[in-house]
Design brief:
By secondary structure, the protein is mostly helical. It is built from six helices and no strands. The chain has a domain at 56-170: Photosystem 1 Reaction Centre Subunit Xi, Chain: L. It is extended. It starts with a helix and ends with a helix.
Length: 173
């Protein structure tokens, strides 16, 4: 029997794993949250559930602090090296000020979202949102942590950028 004929015969066998649906609704197909091999895999679930937004056991302020630190840290570089005054001695200060400005604007956006009385987040196949985001109070705590973490992350990046020459000399790079 030819290989292709064996494949053709397995098309009618419901116990063959190749005939099962790969994408299926986990609960209600009307919701539109489909289980795929990617979003329902253990690897994807563990990665997403270990992000600070979904990690269990931490407060809303700590979540905001972690997210703010990361965003404040990575915003300084593009603002410092891609601004219109990048060829002056003020480029690092402009990067710091721009990053802090962006963090403040983002914090205001989070506070506006909290004031709008947002709906409760829905649990998905991949992640279960924490209870802190079920109320405006949790979102306000998150925004406070985001502001503090964002400014601290921007300050850390600024110190590292301004002292880059010292690090190069220290490690003979």
């Amino acid at each position: 029997m030819v290989f292709v004929e064996r494949i053709e015969q397995s098309n009618d066998n419901p116990s063959d794993p190749r005939n099962r649906e790969v994408v299926h609704p986990p609960i209600d197909p009307q919701i539109g949250n489909l289980a795929t091999p990617i979003n329902s895999s253990p690897l994807a679930r563990s990665l997403i559930n270990n992000l600070s937004a979904y990690r269990s056991g931490i407060s809303a302020q700590r979540r905001g602090l972690e997210v703010g630190l990361a965003h404040g840290y990575w915003l300084v570089g593009p603002f410092a090296y891609l601004n219109p005054l990048r060829h002056t001695e003020f480029t690092d200060v402009i990067g710091l000020a721009s990053a802090i400005g962006m963090i403040i604007i983002s914090t205001l956006a989070i506070l506006l979202y909290a004031a709008s009385n947002p709906p409760r987040p829905v649990a998905t196949i991949t992640a279960n949102p924490p209870e802190a985001f079920n109320s405006p109070k949790g979102w306000n705590e998150y925004a406070k942590g985001f502001l503090i973490g964002g400014v601290a992350g921007a300050a850390i990046a600024y110190v590292l950028i301004t002292n880059l020459g010292s690090f190069k000399a220290l490690f003979n790079l």
